[in-house]
Amino acid sequence: MSHLDNAKTALLESQNIYQRFYAQEDLAKTLNNLGNIYRHQGNTQEALRCYEQCLDIYELLGMKLYRHGVALAYGNLGLLAIQQQELNKAISYYEQPSAALKI
Question: Quick one: 86 exposed, middle or buried, by C-beta within 10 A (0-12, 13-18, 19+)?
């Protein structure tokens, strides 16, 4: 098993725990990290799903309270778009945090 596979297993276990105990902030961070693993493994659909779920949670919690996490998630969506050769989409993702957070 690779280091990424070990990390994915641990994060999936964490995800289940956080969902069970409704630890939303920790769940959002875990989903963002899972998205990174899926992106590195070339599983773009799962990566996209994780990043979007992460942002959905931050939106429910109040994005302005979690600026760092929101910026990381949008940055990772930008990286995913670059990986898929979608540069205009990447730019849009990189511009999102300032719009979403009204910075």
Answer: middle
Instruction: Return the amino acid letter for 45.
Output: Q
Comparing CA positions, the residue from 14, 81, 10, 84 lying closest to residue 51 is 81
- In angstroms, the CA 2 to CA 82 distance is 25
72-101 pLDDT, tens per residue?
Answer: 999 999 999 999 999 999 999 999 887 766
Q: Which amino acid is at 51?
A: Y
Distance (Å, whole) CA 78 – CA 20: 30
- Running DSSP on this structure, what letter comes out for residue 2? -
